[in-house]
Write a structure and sequence with these properties.
The longest helix has 112 residues. The chain starts with a helix and ends with a helix. It is built from 6 helices and no strands. It has a domain of 71 residues. By secondary structure, the chain is an all-alpha fold.
Length: 198
């Protein structure tokens, strides 16, 4: 069985009843599989490192030199143009990568600008909505205060009229009482004191 990192991540162990944790035998078996696969990977890694070191040290060069020696001289000149073609292919690939990166950059910049413009438009719409609501609320509040002021002014006028009427009635009553008092006083002046009984 070739063990992959996904196998390790997705491995499910059976829960054991009446105990906390997993079945120890199942966990041990899975760990044994991991160890085997890991050892294979380490051995393969060591082998590949040895091949790379041998290739870099030039041990592979003499083995490759024998077939080249058998090839006539004109054929030996062919690898040089191939070597020159590789950089141009590499340059083409690099240019393609740069072009792709530039295109992605332009797309991201355009997307960012579109998002920025959308955010600005949304913000302006929100500002206009809030301003409209505030102006409507201000008009409603002003109208309410105007109605309240008119009501209070009408009440003040009513109270002033009441006060004026009350004063005139009170003045009329007091003047009437004073007249009565004056008349009684005049009538008592003409009556002798002996008639009053004093």
């Amino acid at each position: 069985m070739a063990l992959t990192p996904d196998d390790v991540v997705t491995k499910q162990f059976q829960h054991v009843r009446f105990k906390d944790g997993f079945d120890p035998d199942e966990v041990d078996d899975f760990l044994d599989e991991i160890v085997i696969e890991w050892r294979k990977a380490l051995d393969e890694n060591v082998e590949l490192k040895a091949k790379l070191a041998a290739f870099e040290s030039g041990a592979a060069a003499p083995a490759a030199a024998a077939p080249i020696a058998e090839v006539p001289a004109p054929a030996a000149a062919e690898p040089a143009p191939a070597a020159e073609a590789a950089p141009s292919g590499s340059a083409t690939a690099t240019a393609g990568i740069i072009e792709l990166a530039q295109r992605l950059h332009d797309e991201h910049v355009a997307e960012g600008e579109a998002k920025r413009n959308q955010l600005i438009a949304d913000a302006e719409n929100e500002v206009n909505r809030i301003r409209t609501e505030a102006e409507a609320k201000q008009r409603e509040e002003t109208a309410r205060l105007e109605r309240e002021r008119n009501t209070l002014e009408a009440r003040i006028t009513e109270l002033r009229n009441f006060e004026r009427d009350y004063r005139s009635q009170l003045r009329g009553y007091i003047e009437g009482q004073l007249r009565d008092l004056d008349e009684k006083s005049a009538s008592t002046d003409s009556t002798p004191v002996s008639a009053i009984g004093l």
